[in-house]
Design brief:
By secondary structure, the chain is mostly helical. The chain is built from nine helices and no strands. It has one domain (43-192). It has helices spanning 3-18, 27-75, 77-88, 95-118, 126-140, 143-152, 158-169, 178-181, 189-192. Helix 3 (77-88) crosses helix 4 (95-118) and helix 3 packs across helix 6 (143-152). It starts with a helix and ends in a 5-residue tail after the last helix.
């Protein structure tokens, strides 16, 4: 501390104490001040904790909503077979079946869009968003998934379309197509003949 700074602080203290400012503060006011200060600190801590809880809850909601989409496949064998065919050969499905598969795929994109939009505010979602993105890229790289995406990508936000275009352009970071990662996405000729009314 320089002499000038010291002199300044000294004068400031002398002004307050010399003016009798602290002499006029009663004991009740003194304790009241600390009570208000303690309350403000408590409220700040509670607000911070409430914010953390809200962030965790929002993150949990995004993840659980996405898991619910996938759980529908385990509950409906017919729908699962439709999705498998759609991933491999979009044109092999009737228009009604394409609509069922389309709704499933759009749900993936919608949840990806939601998570992507919240990722800036919820850092906990960043890894999840990357996983979701890889999942969608795996779908888009399958022959049927690619045909589906080409037919309807105009329905999605620019934010999502640009992100997918950017990732598809950098082939070094692309995940494998669904049909190359796990065997149950592959279909045999008997499966491809499956139709529903």
């Amino acid at each position: 501390m320089t002499g000038f700074e010291y002199f300044g602080y000294f004068n400031l203290a002398q002004f307050f104490f010399g003016a009798g400012l602290f002499e006029r503060i009663t004991q009740g006011e003194f304790f009241g001040f600390f009570a208000v200060l303690a309350t403000l600190i408590y409220l700040a801590i509670q607000t911070q904790q409430a914010k953390k809880i809200a962030i965790l809850q929002a993150t949990r909601n995004v993840v659980s909503d996405f898991q619910m989409i996938w759980s529908t496949l385990g509950e409906d064998a017919g729908k699962t077979r439709l999705i498998r065919i759609a991933v491999n050969d979009w044109e092999a499905l009737s228009k009604n079946d394409q609509l069922i598969a389309h709704v499933f795929f759009v749900n993936l994109i919608v949840h990806f869009t939601s998570a992507l939009a919240q990722a800036d505010k919820l850092p906990e979602l960043r890894d999840f968003v990357l996983g979701l993105e890889d999942n969608i890229l795996g779908l888009v790289q399958c022959s049927g998934g690619h045909k589906w995406y080409d037919s309807c990508n105009h329905l999605f936000l620019d934010l999502v379309r640009n992100r997918i275009i950017e990732r598809l352009a950098s082939t070094k970071t692309l995940p494998l197509p669904w049909t190359e990662t796990v065997p149950w996405w592959c279909t045999d000729s008997a499966e491809m003949e499956f139709r529903t009314a």
